[in-house]
Each structure stands twice: as structure tokens, then as C-alpha cells.
Amino acid sequence: MACTGITDYLIRESGRYLEGGIYNRVFGRSLWMNLTRRGAYPAGLSETLNVLTNERSAPYDADPTWNPVVVNDGAEGGSCLPPTSQLQIGSTSRSFQLYRRALEGPDFCAEELRTVFALTERLNLITKTLSDHVQIEWEMRDRNEYFRLCKTKVIVDGCPPSEDTDMLATWTAEASAAGATCPTSMVTQGILDRYYLKLVRDGATPVAFDMTGSPVLAFVAEPETLDSLIRDNTDIRQDFRWAEGRALLSSLGVKRTYRGFMHMADLYPNRYSCNAGTYTKIPTFSQAAATKGFKAEVNATWTTASYSESYIHSNSVFEQLVPSPIVTPAPGFTFDPVNYTGQIKVMNIPNRQCNPDGNILYHRMILAAASKPELPEHGVAFISLRCDPACNLITSCTT
Length: 399
What we know:
By secondary structure, the protein is of the alpha+beta class. It is built from seven helices and 19 strands. The strands form three sheets. Strands 5, 6, 7, 8, 9, 10, 11, 12, 15 and 19 form a ten-stranded mixed β-sheet that branches. Strands 1, 2, 3, 4, 16, 17 and 18 form a seven-stranded mixed β-sheet that branches. Strands 13-14 form a two-stranded antiparallel sheet. It is flat.
């Protein structure tokens, strides 16, 4: 006997989003915003400003001549007027100016928000996404300005490595000036030792990152490079095993000190491809389609790049100056304040054709800063080979 079919007369909801099922993706944080010194950009001056560095003076002879003190009978001034050597002094002038970057978010129409699921939570997360983007912009700016302004740039292609001290703006220009091509080695402790002594002898001690009997400088590099400095050298690995037992168990990126350097991890250093001395910087992030709109991902080409940048960092290389807003420079002149740190400002601009009811808004962020060079001689940038950690696969069971 056949049973009676049951007809579904009810309207069923489909595709509902689960309550509490909204998640927010973020990228790891870089340390550059903590490393960079910041100050206020001066107002009322020219578009281009200059700073002056008073240079040093020292004896240029291997064995400076000291004259005996004798009585010179009849000589002008006698022994009270010794022969003199004329000292030469000098100064170096460097210029800088303001740069800025304007960012805007998408338009939002109030009428389209009536049926949005978990509206307040979604909008708050969108604001946080924009804020995270601004922070990454600052991190990239700080990193790029440090590279540009540090005086010594080193291509790790041998011992001694190729270097140039003309403060050129790209690795391609550096390679051309130094007669070098592409790196052939990772940064090693031996390379760092050479530049540690160079910097300390060049006067970097007063601005060392730390002092523990001797100057401690900051070495900023990707975690893979910091790890290889320890793991790829048996002697250094033994130093850590016996002197600081927990160091080998620390996670990547944890600060540690070794041979005058504080190791500091930069999760997103500049990475490059290189062909016969021509360097191409690879974007750290790439854009992909999401279910709605677009999403940022770590660029696969950046992940597998062959060369990366690292730095001996000193906050005396430059200071980042952020301008203050101009609000009321004189009676009758009143402007809306602009926060040049990239603070998110909600913009709702009425317009007869495009926004007659004032119910369309967007977000706007303005970033502006000048990099004031101070002592570029205290900074070093390296470009070197990079290697991912070895997988060390185990393909059979131990008995």
C-alpha cells in the first residue's frame, strides 16, 4: 500500500549566516613602528629643509710629529712660539621634505544597510580592517626609509662583501656602484662581526641599542635568517646550548643577544629577485577575489623569493616628523583638522547629483611625514640569500 505524499507548504530560510560566525583575518605585526623615532614636523619653514652634521677631525699621519721643547736664542717668540699644524674641519648638509599618501575606503549607502546581518559587528570589523591597512602602510614606509637613509649598503657576495656608502636609493644602483651582481651567501656571524667592529670604531657606541659591558647593536632580519645564524653554525649552536639553555627552544622572533647583537625579527622584510645585478622588489601582499569584494594574501612569489633585506638598526639614522594640522592660522581662516598619522575620518559630503540626501559615506586616511636624516653612518643594510627552514623529514620509524 502506497503512503500519501507530504507536500511542504512552509517557506524555509536558506543561506542564513550563523550567529557568532563572523571572523576577522589579520596579518602578523612588524616591529618597525616601535623602532622608529617620531617627532613633530616644524611649521612656517620652506618646503625643503636641511640639517647640518658637524664632521669629525683626527690626525691623518701614522706618526704625528711632536717637537722638542728647546730654547731658541734670538728666534721670534723663542720657545713660547712652537711650530703649528693647521687642523681642517667640515660639515655635511642633507635635505629632506614632507611626503604624503591618501587612502580612501569604499562608499557605503545607508539604504543598503537595512537588511545586513549583524550590521554593527560587520561595520566595526570593516573599520578595523582599514586601521590595520594603515598600520601596514606605516611599517612599509619605516622599513623603506631606513634602507634609503642608512649609509652603508652591503651585497653579501663574498668576504669581504661588496659595499657602497653613497646612500643610493636602490640595490640595482648599489650593485652598479660596487661592481657587484647578486648575493651568493646568507648573512653569517662573520659578516656581522666585520660590521660590528666597523660601526663601534666609527662612533656608534653612544647610540647602541643596549650596553651590557660592551655595545649591543640591533640586527633586524626575517626569522629564517635569525634562525640560520644559530642553527647553521655548530660552534654558535653549542654556545647557546651551554650558555643559555632555553634559547634553542624559543619561538622564532624572540629577542636574544649574541656577540654584540640583539636579534629582532621582521616578519615582512623586503625581498627581491636578482638577475645579473638588476634587482626587482617583490610585493609582500597580493590581492585575490573573496566571496564579496577582495582579500589580501601573502604573495606566493614573495614567499619563495631568493633574496631578502636585513639591517643593523640604529634609531639615530633618521627621525620621522609628522606635521600638525593647520586649523586657524589667522582670523577668518578656519580649516577642518587633518590627522596625518592616518586616523580614519568618516566623510559624508552632500552633493546635488551624487549624494543629495547625505546618506552616502566613505572613510578617508591621510598619512604624511618627513624623514629627517641624522647619522646615516650608524646604519647598515644587507641583501643576501635566504633559505626556508629545512623540513628534516623522518620517513621511517625508529626501533
